[in-house]
């Protein structure tokens, strides 16, 4: 239920109240019936709220305060790298020479923008160990699909049409099998071993003549580095398949290890994760894709190239999978990522990894006495706990996440990966201070103690939020997708 002391804007509506008056029209009135088919015209006036400008300003200001983001609080969302977005990135993206460009301008008039994009590609090539990069894809999953379509085109060009299956670990991000399916492949799951890594014997069993690719991230979704990655690459390559790197966890190895050196043939990056572009509702994503040399012919066109001192788009790519995004990607996010890379430099990017790993291991060891730790070993940028101990007391992982809201924190990822019972996946990132980490850990410890001493307070959480605990079963079966005015 919505708290009565914070009414919605529709509930503030008073007949005759005006927030803004439009000037009188200075053009002849148009008969919409002449422009639109009859079925598209409203029979009644829309029931819009009648409120003052002050009311509407307070309404949207109140809504903004309810929103949670990295600028307002700790956001330990495992697998998503929700780290701080430096404001210098925003300033540079707003330079007139970038912000006021039109995507249809002639190439000769946007050489500075093209140079930035080309330079960003070169940086990403060096960071990933790939041979070429495209900036077109709009986000991570879009990058996955783009990479898989290039792999598919590569196999088809070699007459290898029997390769219809993509192998994914049981700890994989959900977008991996989804992207493979959308790209026209079947998915095959390879299980993890007792150490949380890909089971090599099971990999050998599932890889064969019908394998198009193996998709995985390294470190994996459990926050563990796949130590046998070179052997895994040999298994897949010997069978004629390709290795696809999901770049969601690149923050854990930035400037320390490169996917290309691990044996990967394709990699997508999340500029809105690793490279600090706004994430989620804060702005569009960007999912550049890098490839090894034998996949370059299949890159989306146009391909940005440097010809002498000029930068231009190359459309003469007969084997290209075609354009995957209008224009050439989300330029504003590319500017932000470029600014971040140039600001940090190689030593700074290396420090990112070192501090992200340090923060994760510090939190993991502090929480270890209070929650089950499925894999008791050094983690990378994130780690996985299990709420099995609390479940025996009647408190589920979902309850723990709800209770964290009362402490002002966005909960970590829960119930994922699927191969850990009552999973809690935490990623602190490198940008958080020790004080912030300690405060979050203290909240988690308090919740663990509440589960033992006063489980009801956890089971009924949250208690302090605008919206209380929802009936999630009813919300899934009978969702309310629009505002319904009170009678």
TrEMBL record:
Catalytic activity: N(6)-[(R)-lipoyl]-L-lysyl-[glycine-cleavage complex H protein] + glycine + H(+) = N(6)-[(R)-S(8)-aminomethyldihydrolipoyl]-L-lysyl-[glycine-cleavage complex H protein] + CO2
Residues the record lists as N6-(pyridoxal phosphate)lysine modifications: 273
Enzyme class name: oxidoreductase
Gene Ontology annotations of biological process type: glycine decarboxylation via glycine cleavage system
EC number: 1.4.4.2
Record flagged with keyword Oxidoreductase: yes
Family per similarity comment: Belongs to the GcvP family. C-terminal subunit subfamily.
GO MF, one annotated term: glycine dehydrogenase (decarboxylating) activity
UniProt KW keywords: Oxidoreductase, Pyridoxal phosphate
NCBIfam families given in the database record: PRK04366.1
GO cellular component terms listed in the entry, alphabetical order: cytosol; glycine cleavage complex
Function: The glycine cleavage system catalyzes the degradation of glycine. The P protein binds the alpha-amino group of glycine through its pyridoxal phosphate cofactor; CO(2) is released and the remaining methylamine moiety is then transferred to the lipoamide cofactor of the H protein.
Quaternary structure (record): The glycine cleavage system is composed of four proteins: P, T, L and H. In this organism, the P 'protein' is a heterodimer of two subunits.
InterPro entries (UniProt xref): GcvPB, GDC-P_C, GDC-P_N, GDC_P, PyrdxlP-dep_Trfase, PyrdxlP-dep_Trfase_major, PyrdxlP-dep_Trfase_small
Cofactor: pyridoxal 5'-phosphate
Name used for this protein in its record: Probable glycine dehydrogenase (decarboxylating) subunit 2
